[in-house]
Design brief:
The chain has 144 residues and is an alpha+beta fold. It has a single domain, classed as Heat Shock Protein 90, CATH 3.30.565.10. The chain has helices at residues 21-32, 37-56, 86-89, 99-103, 111-118, and strands at residues 5-11, 61-67, 71-78, 121-127, 131-139. It has a 5-stranded antiparallel β-sheet, covered by helices on one side. A hairpin with a 3-residue loop joins β2 (61-67) and β3. It is globular and about 45 Å long. It binds adenosine-5'-diphosphate and magnesium ion (MG).
Length: 144
């Protein structure tokens, strides 16, 4: 593997059928690089949740990834409403998703708690009216 690979994806806030495309694409790249399947799984779950949040709560944005031999860093940014209370947002089952969003199968309130448990390092920066950046690092290791 080269020293590191950087990737950038735009995340469309209107096309719900494309939600998850960036995380599927990363998953493919990691498999092609021969990264450990457990690591790929943790990256795919964590990034998918942040990407879905970017679409359903943030109105779209972008994702950056740095794939290094020992770890994968992902940052997802939107310019949506921001998160007023991050501790509350982190609670299992807490959601502000509308019924319409829930009918589409999103909004179980487990996205942020899952990112926290599947990633090794996780950070949210959010500012009301300006947007949210979620950053996560997953170390390349062969366990859960
Ligand atoms: N990017 C974001 N922008 C604004 N609010 C967000 C964002 N991500 C998460 N939230 C807030 O945190 C809550 C919990 O997120 P999450 O655990 O992923 O559950 P869910 O997405 O199912 O609602 C969301 O319902 C929303 O209120
Ligand atoms: Mg979510």
């Amino acid at each position: 593997m080269p020293d590191s690979i950087t990737l950038h994806y735009e995340i469309d806030g209107k096309d719900f059928s494309a939600a998850g495309d960036a995380s599927s694409s990363i998953k493919k790249v990691l498999s092609q690089l021969g990264v450990d399947p457990n690591t790929i799984r943790r990256v795919a779950i964590s990034m998918y949740e942040a990407e879905i949040n970017c679409v359903i709560h943030g109105g779209g944005g972008f994702a950056d990834a740095i794939i290094a031999p020992d770890k994968i860093w992902i940052g997802i940014t939107d310019h949506g409403p921001g998160i007023p209370d991050i501790d509350l947002a982190m609670q299992k089952g807490y959601t502000t998703a509308t019924n319409e969003i829930r009918e589409m199968g999103f909004g179980a309130g487990m996205g942020l708690p899952n990112i926290k448990s599947y990633s090794d390092d996780f950070n949210i920066k959010s500012s009301i009216g300006k947007g949210t950046t979620v950053e996560m690092t997953i170390y390349n290791r062969n366990d859960n």
